[in-house]
């Protein structure tokens, strides 16, 4: 069972697609958001949850005080799960769900449109595809914004395109989380 860890929707359960996604564990989300709150990256943020799956990361951000989140996924089952979760948590006024590829969605964003970007791609996503997504994320992240990449501990560190710079990384079991920022 996957639940929101904390905030206004804390403890509420989420629908997770039966297959095709790898939900971030509650333990990892708790640690991840503890770090993000320490960086003052959540409260009032405009959030982008890429490769959203169930939407757990973006929904957790909104539950913890983010102003707005967009959940992006291309898989129909993931998009349906995200929409069901948004309705169940009564967050439709603060969360949008987009059925599209990450690259197409990012191409439509304006420069500096997002304060916090959460990327939790499938572990088998090619490094070139992640690099392409990060290049687009670098453009749309606001100055002072934070970017998080979650991958397997077996994956190499992401290549941070300018103006993004690495600021931290953490390991939680089989999960490795990297933090980057666009300097203010």
How would you sum up this structure, described in words?
By secondary structure, the chain is of the alpha/beta class. It has one domain: Rossmann fold, CATH 3.40.50. The chain has a seven-stranded mixed beta sheet with strand order 5-4-3-6-7-9-8. Strands 1-2 form a two-stranded antiparallel ribbon. Helix 5 links the parallel strand 6 and strand 7. It starts with a strand and ends with a strand. GO terms for molecular function: 16S rRNA (guanine(966)-N(2))-methyltransferase activity; nucleic acid binding. Keywords: Methyltransferase, Transferase.
What topology emerges from the helices and strands here?
Layout: E1 2-3, E2 13-14, H1 26-38, E3 46-50, H2 56-63, E4 68-73, H3 76-88, E5 95-99, H4 102-108, E6 114-119, H5 127-140, E7 141-152, E8 165-172, E9 175-181
Parallel strand pairs: 3-4, 3-6, 4-5, 6-7
Antiparallel strand pairs: 1-2, 7-9, 8-9
Helix pairs in contact: 4-5
InterPro entries: DNA_methylase_N6_adenine_CS (IPR002052), RNA_MeTrfase_RsmD (IPR004398), SAM-dependent_MTases_sf (IPR029063)
Protein name: 16S rRNA (Guanine(966)-N(2))-methyltransferase RsmD
Keywords: Methyltransferase, Transferase
